[in-house]
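Duplicate of #3305? Posting structure anyway:
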């Protein structure tokens, strides 16, 4: 197991040890030797669920075990597993298990069990993921920005694009770039942007963002958006990065670059840029 996989395993161990306590995602990220921004991305790609979903599923699974096997009140189970009220706990419990918390006490009640995750390296089909390494000078972007939560971003960012392309702002920013910039915890800022022309004014409601000089791993994406982009994005974090020993992540941002958007068919071409450094670079 390489360092990244071991780090994620340590983060999972921290989560598992604190399911009845307050869980600080920044502490979990530190266990994995990652920023919160990258930890959220890599955890989701490796594990198939967001950090928040994993914590919620594990807590609801353990709550059901206790309700079915112990003499514990519903309100006590709710508080023990992080819910402010029995009502919110009951709604989440019913969505997960298909029955109410009180029904979980009944003999023969069918409940769902969500097992703890274990990170293992496995050999899968030898598919290719094309990439190249490039060095780029500093450049500045201008665009529109919105804050997103990593738990829901795969659904909400395409809606942000749809909204933008139907707005007056699209006359100013056509959308050559999509930029993810770490903010705090699960949250990050996403910009729909173009190259900034410094002799032009920045209109009200628009922002600029400086992308520092550095080295990038560039991944081509071909196909209908957003599916083609999201598929490559998942493979970067779950396949490419865990297998690399010569590169480490640099910076707390990454870019989507829409070079030939066309009419969004299987021939549509875009790229994902990930900032990297050599692994032995201090």
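Output from current build:
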């Amino acid at each position: 197991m390489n360092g990244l996989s071991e780090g994620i395993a340590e983060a999972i161990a921290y989560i598992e040890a604190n399911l009845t306590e307050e869980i600080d995602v920044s502490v979990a990220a530190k266990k994995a030797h990652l920023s919160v921004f990258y930890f959220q991305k890599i955890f989701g790609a490796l594990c198939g669920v967001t950090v928040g979903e994993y914590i919620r599923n594990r807590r609801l699974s353990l709550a059901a075990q206790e309700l079915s096997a112990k003499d514990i009140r519903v309100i006590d189970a709710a508080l023990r597993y992080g819910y402010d009220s029995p009502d919110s706990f009951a709604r989440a419990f019913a969505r997960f298990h298909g029955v109410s918390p009180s029904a979980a006490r009944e003999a023969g009640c069918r409940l769902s069990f969500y097992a703890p995750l274990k990170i293992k390296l496995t050999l899968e089909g030898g598919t290719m993921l094309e990439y190249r390494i490039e060095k780029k000078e500093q450049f500045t972007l201008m665009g529109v920005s919105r804050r997103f939560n990593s738990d829901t971003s795969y659904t909400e960012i395409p809606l942000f694009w749809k909204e933008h392309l139907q707005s007056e702002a699209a006359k100013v920013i056509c959308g050559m770039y999509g930029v993810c910039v770490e903010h705090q915890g699960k949250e990050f800022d996403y910009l729909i942007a173009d190259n900034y022309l410094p002799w032009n004014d920045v209109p009200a409601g628009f922002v600029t963002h400086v992308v520092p000089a550095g080295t990038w791993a560039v991944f081509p994406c071909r196909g209908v958006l957003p599916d083609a982009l999201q598929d490559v994005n998942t493979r970067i974090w779950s396949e490419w990065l865990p297998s690399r020993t010569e590169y480490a992540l640099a910076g707390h941002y990454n870019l989507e670059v829409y070079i030939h958007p066309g009419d969004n068919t299987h021939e549509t071409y875009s790229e994902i840029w990930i900032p990297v450094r050599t692994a032995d670079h201090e």
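Confirmed duplicate; merging threads. The chain has a mean pLDDT of 89. The radius of gyration is 22 Å.
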